[in-house]
Amino acid sequence: MKEALKNRTKIFAHNCIKITGQFPNNYLANHIKGQLIRCSTSVAANYRATCIAQSKASFISKISIVIEEVDESNFWIEFALDENLIQRESVECILKASSELTAIFMASRKTASINRQ
């Protein structure tokens, strides 16, 4: 499961980076590009960190960061849609992936928190 999620989060980051290539070249679009690239790659990098967490508390802390970063990625994609920087059809699969990843990581955090007590 860990390896599958490592791969899935890396693919999510790659897809987010690729989609920024469709953005126009203006100040707002460039800002959103940078933010989306930063937070989507953080999802993958921080998930890897959860896989080597040294304690339950560390795992919960790191998975919480992953949840925040995937949610932020979703925010920037939605913002780009609101500003008509990209077409919805081109990001449907990324939005679906961010929703699925959020659900997976929320469930992992909940399980870890219950097992911690």
From TrEMBL:
Domain of life: Bacteria
Protein species of origin: Pseudotamlana carrageenivorans
Gene3D superfamilies: 23S rRNA-intervening sequence
InterPro entries per record: 23S_rRNA-intervening_sequence, 23S_rRNA_IVS_sf
Pfam families cross-referenced by the UniProt entry: 23S_rRNA_IVP
UniProt-recorded name of the protein: Four helix bundle protein
Membrane-spanning ranges: none
